[in-house]
């Protein structure tokens, strides 16, 4: 029974440092493509361009995403022996993404 709680706890704990890459992605999207579509407004003091932000965002998201994927692949292989195949074959990954993004979404909702 405890094996099913390990991925939940680990992904919630990984969600705490995931606040940084999630915020960086939102910042780039809200000042770039979403502002061009008129869905958001640009930051008035942002005049350095998007390339500078991409220099920071791509490595941070890449390193965190790689670490997150390796940890979850290892946990899924070691702790979950049977993977349900019906009706949705990969509930582990949707739950892992949701739990990892939960601290960011809660911080955005209540912050």
Automatic annotation (TrEMBL):
Q: Which UniProt keywords apply?
A: Membrane, Transmembrane, Transmembrane helix
Spans traversing the lipid bilayer: 12-30, 50-71, 92-110
The protein depicted here goes by the name: Integral membrane protein
Source organism per entry reads: Streptomyces durocortorensis
